[in-house]
Amino acid sequence: MGHNYAKPATLAQRFERVMNRLPEHWTVKIERAEGSGTWRALVHAPGVEGRWAEGDPDAVTALENAWRLNRPPAG
Fold it and tell me: Strand 27-32 to strand 53-56: parallel, antiparallel, or no bridges (unpaired)?
């Protein structure tokens, strides 16, 4: 009997996936916190003040969390 186990996405695959979701005209900022080794990211539409995703272990996770915080409502 075969099993269908999903292989976890690599950081590069996750980065590509979240960047493909972001509209081209949105602002994207990614920063590494000095001394702490954590990352923060901000994504937002023009004219809108977005919320930072902070304290993430890598830049991709910070970017994914920023997208979750600031994406438009589904619908």
Answer: unpaired
In terms of phi and psi (left: phi > 0; alpha: psi -120 to 50; beta: otherwise), the region of 35 is left
Domain positions in the chain: 13-70
The answer on pLDDT for 1 being more than 70 is: no
Contacts by residues 60-69 (CB-CB < 8 Å, ≥ 24 positions apart): 60/11, 60/14, 60/15, 60/18, 62/30, 63/15, 63/18, 63/19, 63/28, 63/30, 64/14, 64/18, 65/41, 66/41, 66/42, 67/18, 67/21, 67/22, 67/43
Interval 23-38 mean pLDDT? 94
Q: Please give the model's pTM, rounded to 2 decimal places.
A: 0.85
3-state secondary structure string across 4-33 = CCCCCCCHHHHHHHHHHHCCCCCEEEEEEC
